[in-house]
């Protein structure tokens, strides 16, 4: 009798434990479903943001109209990018920018869309023509809009202005510099060592000019390519190797140049994680 009661008691204990475990599993499953649903909502929002960003970046028909021999190598680290390129024409001036916003992913993408909006505002609504004055305006608008206390929001980048009639090229450069290849020689141009946004320096940007001739190739890029870790020792690609790669391919077609950049990047990166967004634009003058 005692043994029977013990067996019955143990059976009841096991049943209750199984029932409790089943209830816990149901709760865990319900919570997991909620988390999965939220993750899907977030991912859907990011994908929607990507579509918006892609539409803005790729809707640059003017690139083909005014720079028929060009390529764009654009490789975000995440679904959306903090790097951006922007082309615009107003009257007889053609503008081209390649910029690297603070951060990457969603924060960087938000900053890129805001910066593109302010670039358009400077030219279309305020009739600012010179690249340095456009950067001055965009910096002021970014600081007014989002920068708080010591938070350094903004972007590094290059803004070219090409006079369609005279072919004169002027530019402003925030930390990143344009590179010209002429007669198989690399020519680096000057740069202002400060961002478009809040930084240690907030002086007026300088208006620089580029002397180029027909057949030369001009490159604008962000730091993501040169900063990528990889290779046999897991080190950065670095600017010297990047410029040597450009030099070795500059006489080839734009498509071949872009493919060479992509192949070299993938080979160098290997199994390493991509650390930053990448954007390189090259065009024949």
- Number of domain units: 2
CATH H level of the largest domain: which superfamily? PPM-type phosphatase domain
Strand residues, percent: 15-25%
What is the CATH topology classification name of the largest domain? Phosphatase 2c, domain 1
The appropriate CATH architecture of the largest domain is 4-Layer Sandwich
CATH class of the largest domain: Alpha Beta
Shape, please?
globular
N to C succession of SSEs = HHEEEHHEEEEEEEEEHHE
Describe the main β-sheet briefly: 6 strands, antiparallel
If you compute it from the alpha carbons, what radius of gyration comes out, rounded to the nearest whole angstrom?
26 Å
Describe this structure in a few short sentences.
It contains six helices and 13 strands.
Structure, described:
The chain has 285 residues and is of the alpha+beta class. It has two domains: 59 residues; 225 residues, PPM-type phosphatase domain (Phosphatase 2c, domain 1, 4-Layer Sandwich), CATH 3.60.40.10. The protein is 44% helix and 24% strand. It contains six helices and 13 strands. Strands 2, 3, 4, 5, 8 and 9 form a six-stranded antiparallel sheet that branches. Strand 2 and strand 3 form a beta hairpin. Helix 3 packs across helix 4. The longest helix is centred in the first third of the chain and has 57 residues. The radius of gyration is 26 Å and the shape is globular.
């Amino acid at each position: 009798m005692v043994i029977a009661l013990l067996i019955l008691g143990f059976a009841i204990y096991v049943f209750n434990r199984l029932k409790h475990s089943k209830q816990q599993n149901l709760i865990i499953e319900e919570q997991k479903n909620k988390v999965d649903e939220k993750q899907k909502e977030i991912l859907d929002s990011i994908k929607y943001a990507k579509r918006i960003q892609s539409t803005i970046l790729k809707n640059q028909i003017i690139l083909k109209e005014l720079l028929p021999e060009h390529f764009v190598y654009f490789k975000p680290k995440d679904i959306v990018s903090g790097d951006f390129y922007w082309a615009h024409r107003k009257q007889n001036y053609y503008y081209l920018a390649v910029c690297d916003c603070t951060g990457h992913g969603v924060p960087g993408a938000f900053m890129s869309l805001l910066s593109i909006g302010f670039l358009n505002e400077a030219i279309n609504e305020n009739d600012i023509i010179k690249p340095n004055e456009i950067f001055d305006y965009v910096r002021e608008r970014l600081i007014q809009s989002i920068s708080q206390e010591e938070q350094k929001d903004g972007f590094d980048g290059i803004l070219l202005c090409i006079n369609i009639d005279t072919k004169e090229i002027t530019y402003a450069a925030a930390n990143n510099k344009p590179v010209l290849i002429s007669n198989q020689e690399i020519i680096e141009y000057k740069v202002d060592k400060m961002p478009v946004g809040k930084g240690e320096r907030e002086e007026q940007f300088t208006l620089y000019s580029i002397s180029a001739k027909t057949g030369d190739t001009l490159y604008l890029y962000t730091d993501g390519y040169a900063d990528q870790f990889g290779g046999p020792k897991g080190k950065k690609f670095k600017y010297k190797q990047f410029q040597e790669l450009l030099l070795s391919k500059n006489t080839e077609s734009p498509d071949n140049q872009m493919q060479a950049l992509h192949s070299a990047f993938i080979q160098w990166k290997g199994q390493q994680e991509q650390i930053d967004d990448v954007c390189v634009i090259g065009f024949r003058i």
